[in-house]
Amino acid sequence: MAGADEADAEWMPSETQDVFDECPETLQVVTSSPDGTVRLVDARTGRFKVVCRHGGRVWSVAVNPVQPDQVCFSSDQPDVSIYSLRTCTAIGKLVGHKEKVYHCAYSSCGRYITTSSCDCTAKVWDAESMVCLATLEGSTSRLWGTSFSPDGSVVGTACSDHVARVYHIEETIRAWEDSGKAEGASVVLMAALEFRQHSETIYSVDFSPTHPYACSAGDDRVVCVWDRNTGESIHKLKEHSSYVIGCKFDPTGCFIASSSYDHLVLVWDVASGARVHRLEAPTGLYRMSWSADGCFVAGACEDAHLRVWTVESGELLACHGAGHTRRLWSTEIVPEGTLPPK
Fold first, then answer.
1. pLDDT (average), residues 220-247
2. Quick check: pTM over 0.85?
3. What is the pLDDT of residue 7?
């Protein structure tokens, strides 16, 4: 794996010199791409810096919610890298998967990371010591997505076998913390619940911060909302006309955003299942992310651009290439105040 060049730690000028005056000066977004780079982009000005130049495709990136100057990213390599946004230097690696890792996510406390891989497993890691605490088994095909519940007690996975799985990890985490984080053997966990109402590959799974709900989405163009404890279906949201790569609850748990190759991010009311906002792009969309206040959504686009919208109005707030040479696969909005605006 190649790290960022020394010069890449400096902010680079915008390719277009466009300044989006309505965009907050503090709005910054991390992007990943199959061009092999992770970049930090100032959404207002388009200035950017290369956090890492990787030797292969970078599938996803996640920002530590408690130490937001740290990110982890997954790639065509079986290792997951942790980097500093401030210095663009490597902090460490999570080593244990046997094949490429498609997705990674932090727990809300920032102490744990979950990863999903082409090797048909997901794993849970201690972010500080980089020890694998649990391997999540039972999937029969590659795993495209994974996430923690906001309380950190549950991990979900999204799989090519059309199944979203829920794993209870609370006891494993408690035992790790009670032991004083003494290094020990990783445990193997099987799913406590399997949600089987998708008809094709599932790419994303996420959990509500306020209700015992999960959402999932994939190739069947449907966003499913379901009870994470019982597997009962609550809503099937069906307005997308192409496969849906991303789905995420907003910070209040009142809304879900879904991003699709049909050029749309749709925002749904969780209580009613109604579509309440429609955010449009001129090209297909992969994964997306919410801002911490729920006001903005950032989308990773097929045309190698990052786009940011105001959710309430649907207005395009920013659009930047940030030096990417291939499509964007994921975005994460950085919490305000993490780094000084450029």
1. 98
2. yes
3. 40
Asked if 302 and 287 count as a contact pair (C-beta separation under 8 A), the reply is: no
**CB-count exposure of residue 10 (10 Å: 0-12, 13-18, 19+):** exposed
Question: pLDDT tens across 34-93, in order?
Answer: 999 999 999 999 999 999 998 789 999 999 999 999 999 999 999 999 999 999 999 999
For 232, list phi and psi in degrees, rounded to 5.
-65, 135
**Is residue 1's pLDDT more than 50?**
no
Separation CA 29–CA 308 (nearest Å): 9
Q: What is the pLDDT of residue 18?
A: 76
Separation of alpha carbons 19 and 73, rounded Å: 28
- Confirm if 19 and 13 have CB atoms less than 8 A apart: no
Reading the block at residue 169, the tokens are 């990890």
Out of 23-32, 58-67, 147-156, 174-183, least confident range = 174-183
CA distances from 286 to 118, 306, 312, 332 (A): 18, 11, 21, 12
Rounded to whole angstroms, the Cα distance separating 339 from 56 reads 27
Long-range contacts of 289-294 (CB under 8 A, 24+ apart): 289/29, 289/248, 289/330, 289/331, 289/332, 289/333, 290/248, 290/250, 290/251, 290/257, 290/333, 291/27, 291/333, 292/251, 292/333, 292/335, 292/336, 293/251, 294/250, 294/251, 294/252, 294/255
Structure tokens, 56: 């292969």
Q: What is the DSSP letter of 138?
A: -
Show the 3-state SS of 300-311: EECCCCEEEEEC
Q: How far is CA 153 from the centre of its chain?
A: 18
